[in-house]
C-alpha cells in the first residue's frame, strides 16, 4: 500500500515516513501543495495524508482538486494538521476529506485511522478503476484550479437561483416548474419532471414534442422509481399530469401519432430528501445514450438538497393555505 504524505515540515515528514515505513507502507513525499497534486498523479497512492497550510497550494484546494476528479475521488484523504478548530473541521469536510487528525495523533492512533480508511475504501469501491498516471506541469495544476473555481461559481449561481424561487413562488407547481426551468440551464435532457408521490402528481417539462408512447414510458418509469424510493404505491396510470402554466397538453404530447417513439436511452432519478424523508423525486430523460456525464451528475448532487428544501417549503406553504381555506369555509358555514 502506498501513502502520499504532503507537508512542508521536514521534521514531521521524516517522522511520518519512518512510522509508515515501519508499518509496511510505501511512502511518497510532497513538500508543498503543488507537488502534492503532481506526486498524486505520478504515483497514484492508496491514501493521502495532507497538511492544510502549505506553500503554493492550500491543503483544502489540493483535497478539492482530487475529490473533483471522478477517477480519483475514491482515494481516501486524511487531513493531518496542527489546527483543530471547528472551522478547520468544517472546511475539511466541505473540501471532501475522509478524515481529520491533529498532529498530536501520531503513533498508533494515526496508523489505526489509515488502516480504517483503506478498509472502508476497499469495501465501498470493489469495482473501482484506478486513475491513469500523469505528469502534470505547474501550469496544468493551475488550470485545474481555475476550472474547479469556475465550476463552483457556476454551481453557486444555480443554487442561489433555486433558493430564490422559494422566496417568490406562490404555489407548489409554480415552484417546481421554475426549478425545472433553471435545471434545464444546468443539464441537457429531453424531458424533466418532479414526481410528487404523496399527491400522485407528475410535474413535467419537455424540450420537444413527445410521442404518447414515450410519455407513457417516462411516466411509468417515474412511478417505478417512486415505488423504489418510497413506501407509496405509485402507479403511472394514476398520476395527474401537471404542465407549466399556459402550456397546453398538445404542446407537449403529440396525440396525432405523427411523432414516433424515440425511446429513452438515458434515464436518471434522484430522490429529494428533506428532514429525513423523500419529499419528491427528480426525473430526467434523454433520447441520447450516456447523456448524463459525471459533470452533470455532480451538478445534480450539488443542487439536490437545495431543491428538496425549496419543494418541501412550498408543500408546507400550500398545506397552510389549504388549512386556512378550510377554516374560512367552516366559519362561513357555521
Short description:
The protein is α/β, with parallel strands linked by helices and 334 residues long. Helices cover 48% and strands 18% of the residues.
Describe it for me?
This protein has 334 residues and is α/β, with parallel strands linked by helices. 48% of the residues lie in helices and 18% in strands. It has nine helices and twelve strands. It has helices spanning 10-22, 33-43, 59-67, 86-94, 108-124, 138-168, 172-183, 212-229, 294-333, and strands spanning 2-6, 26-30, 47-50, 77-81, 99-102, 191-196, 201-206, 210-211, 240-242, 253-254, 266-274, 277-286. A five-stranded parallel β-sheet has the order 2-1-3-4-5, sandwiched between helices. α6 runs antiparallel to α7 (172-183) and α7 (172-183) packs antiparallel against α9 (294-333). The radius of gyration is 25 Å and the shape is elongated. The model has no long low-confidence stretch (mean pLDDT 86).
What's the overall average pLDDT, rounded? 86
Strand residues, percent: 15-25%
Q: What's the total count of β strands?
A: 12
Give me the side-by-side strand order of the main sheet. 2-1-3-4-5
Number of DSSP helical runs: 9
The CATH topology annotation of the largest domain reads as: Beta-Lactamase
Q: Order of SSEs, N→C?
A: EHEHEHEHEHHHEEEHEEEEH
Instruction: Quickly name the level 1 CATH class of the largest domain.
Output: Alpha Beta
Q: Give the total of domains.
A: 2
Main sheet attributes: strand count, strand direction, barrel closure: 5 strands, parallel
End-to-end span in angstroms? 77 Å
Q: What is the CATH architecture term of the largest domain?
A: 2-Layer Sandwich
Derived from helix and strand composition plus strand pairing, the structural class reads alpha/beta
**CATH superfamily caption of the largest domain:** GAF domain
* CA-based gyration radius: 25 Å
Contiguous low-pLDDT stretches (5 residues minimum) are: none
Helix content: 40-55%
Instruction: Specify the overall morphology.
Output: elongated
Amino acid at each position: 500500500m502506498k501513502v502520499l504524505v504532503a507537508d512542508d515540515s521536514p521534521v514531521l515528514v521524516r517522522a511520518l515516513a519512518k512510522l509508515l515505513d515501519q508499518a509496511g507502507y510505501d511512502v511518497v513525499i510532497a513538500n508543498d501543495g503543488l507537488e502534492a497534486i503532481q506526486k498524486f498523479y505520478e504515483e497514484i497512492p492508496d491514501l493521502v495524508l495532507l497538511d492544510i497550510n502549505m506553500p503554493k497550494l492550500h491543503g483544502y484546494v489540493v483535497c478539492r482538486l482530487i475529490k473533483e476528479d471522478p477517477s480519483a475521488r475514491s482515494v481516501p484523504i486524511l487531513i493531518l494538521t496542527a489546527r483543530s478548530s471547528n472551522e478547520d473541521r468544517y472546511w475539511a469536510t466541505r473540501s471532501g476529506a475522509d478524515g481529520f487528525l491533529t498532529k498530536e495523533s501520531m503513533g498508533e492512533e494515526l496508523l489505526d485511522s489509515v488502516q480504517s480508511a483503506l478498509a472502508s475504501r476497499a469495501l465501498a469501491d470493489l469495482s473501482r478503476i484506478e486513475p491513469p498516471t500523469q505528469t502534470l506541469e505547474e501550469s496544468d495544476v493551475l488550470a485545474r484550479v481555475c476550472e474547479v473555481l469556475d465550476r463552483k461559481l457556476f454551481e453557486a449561481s444555480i443554487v442561489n437561483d433555486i433558493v430564490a424561487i422559494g422566496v417568490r413562488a406562490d404555489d407548489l407547481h409554480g415552484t417546481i416548474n421554475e426549478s425545472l426551468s433553471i435545471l434545464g440551464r444546468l443539464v441537457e435532457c429531453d424531458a424533466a419532471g418532479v414526481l410528487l408521490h404523496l399527491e400522485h402528481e407528475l410535474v413535467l417539462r419537455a424540450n420537444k414534442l413527445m410521442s404518447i408512447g414515450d410519455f407513457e414510458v417516462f411516466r411509468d418509469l417515474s412511478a417505478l422509481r417512486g415505488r423504489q424510493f418510497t413506501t407509496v404505491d405509485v402507479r403511472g396510470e394514476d398520476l395527474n399530469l401537471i404542465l407549466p402554466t399556459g402550456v397546453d397538453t398538445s404542446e407537449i404530447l403529440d396525440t396525432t401519432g405523427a411523432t414516433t417513439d424515440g425511446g429513452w436511452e438515458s434515464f436518471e432519478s434522484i430522490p429529494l430528501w428533506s428532514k429525513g424523508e423523500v419529499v419528491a423525486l427528480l426525473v430526467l430523460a434523454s433520447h441520447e445514450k450516456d447523456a448524463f456525464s459525471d459533470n452533470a451528475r455532480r451538478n445534480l448532487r450539488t443542487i439536490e438538497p437545495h431543491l428538496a428544501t425549496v419543494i418541501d417549503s412550498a408543500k408546507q406553504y400550500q398545506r397552510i393555505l389549504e388549512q386556512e381555506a378550510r377554516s374560512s369555509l367552516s366559519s362561513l358555514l357555521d
